[in-house]
Amino acid sequence: MLKLIELEWRKLERKKVIGEAITYWLILMFLPVFFLKVVFADMPNVRFGESYAAALDLMISIQMGFILFGASLINHVFIEEYKNKTIALSFGYPLSRKRLVMAKVLFIVLAVFIGTLLSFGVSGIVTFALNQVMDVIPGTPTAADLTNYAIRMIIHSIAAALASLIPLFLFGIWKRAVIPTVICAVFLMQFPNFLGLLRITLSPDFLYVIFSVLGVASIILSIKFVNKLGDL
């Protein structure tokens, strides 16, 4: 399985994918301070800037932007190969299609997990450094704040990796459509905001659990029905 995952990495346009990941990191690392300093500055009901502990929820929601990176990888790893017929070569190996799809899924999960984890780390460091100059979050992070941040960055990186695969079955393997895959990812990223506009209160952590379950369901369906969705 590790060799199959490595093969997926080698088949990618690596410079393009790495460049895309770096773009996400550069944008996401500055967004927390931007939102606290500019967007939420005149909103007294928004309390993300009260403390480092309060800012954590904002950090989590921003880093879930890596769900969009997962949609991009679905395009590279599945949709483009279907459209270019190169996936037929992979399915010609003396291995089951289900095993090959599982390797592709694991590759995307690992890539999004590592990308999100690094983004959490870089964003946390940049937010702390900028806060020393701009003073948007009062006080200093405590040991409890840092521990909580480390734990939740791991948990929510897993959630982002699984949630990014929600479009896989319907739009990646069945419909093989790029634009709906991206739109689905954008919708998932913005879904908490939609709930806020509708005045529906739902715990963000509970919402990410639902996303993770849906992502796992999409993975299971993709593996189970890959042999029944027409050729390739």
Secondary structure layout:
Elements: H1 2-11, H2 14-39, H3 52-63, H4 67-84, H5 87-90, H6 97-134, H7 143-163, H8 168-174, H9 178-197, H10 204-225
Gap between N and C termini, in Å? Answer: 22 Å
User: How large, in whole angstroms, is the Cα Rg?
Assistant: 19 Å
Instruction: Please indicate the percent range of residues in DSSP E strands (runs of 2 or more).
Output: under 5%
The unreliable regions are none
- Beta-strand segment tally: 0
**Class by alpha and beta content:** mainly alpha
Number of helices: 10
Would you tell me the overall average pLDDT?
89
Largest sheet: none
**Strand and helix order:** HHHHHHHHHH
- Estimate the global geometry from the Cα principal axes: elongated
Assign a percent range to the helix content: over 70%
Characterization of the model:
With 232 residues, this protein is mostly helical. It contains 10 helices and no strands. 77% of the residues lie in helices and 0% in strands. The longest helix is centred in the middle third of the chain and has 38 residues, at 97-134. It is elongated, with a radius of gyration of 19 Å. The relative contact order is 0.15. Keywords: Membrane, Transmembrane, Transmembrane helix. The chain crosses the membrane at residues 21-40, 60-79, 100-129, 149-171, 178-200, 206-226.
